[in-house]
Design a protein that fits this description.
The chain has one domain (about 5-20, about 30-115): Bacterial Protein-export protein SecB. Helices cover about 25% and strands about 30% of the residues. It is built from 2 helices and 4 strands, in the order ββββαα. The chain has a 4-stranded antiparallel sheet with strand order 1-4-3-2, covered by helices on one side. A hairpin with a 7-residue loop joins β2 (about 35-40) and β3. The longest helix has 29 residues, at about 85-115.
Length: about 140
């Protein structure tokens, strides 16, 4: 599937310090939660917006040193406006993989600019979301 990557923008970027007491040898489990949303405008079937978000939220049961919300939106224009559902799913996975390094960098920069040790999300070479793993299983030439 051919497409043009038109750009990226930030929809949300928040950081809030939590005053959490942590023992010197206590290990924190940050557990970022990822979300994705796909939107298509009604007036242009070739245009697709992929929203990729990460959230870290402190709870009483699982305290975190900060709350964080980052939501980036990539804008893509497809070559044509009629693709099979399988082709479209494969595109969404590819677009997600394209956006993830931007999300990762934004989180690192946001936490560094908050004067804490930067949070580096893991490098992910495959699909981020469990529902994408079955589509990712076929050979690269199968979808084009």
């Amino acid at each position: 599937m051919r497409y043009d990557f038109k750009g990226i923008t930030t929809e949300e970027l928040t950081y809030k310090l939590n005053r959490v007491q942590i023992a010197p040898n206590q290990r924190l489990d940050i557990k970022p939660q990822f979300a994705r949303q796909v939107r298509k405008p009604n007036d242009n079937k070739k245009l697709i917006f992929i929203s990729l978000a990460v959230k870290i939220e402190s709870t009483e049961k699982e305290p975190k040193p900060f709350n964080l919300d980052v939501n980036l939106v990539g804008v893509f224009e497809l070559e044509k406006d009629n693709y099979t559902a399988q082709e479209e799913r494969a595109f969404v996975i590819e677009a997600t993989q394209l956006l993830y390094p931007y999300l990762r960098s934004t989180v690192s920069n946001l936490t560094a600019n908050a004067f804490i040790t930067p949070l580096n999300l893991p490098i992910i070479s495959g699909p981020i979301f469990p529902e994408d793993r079955d589509v990712y299983a076929f050979a690269p030439g199968d979808v084009n």
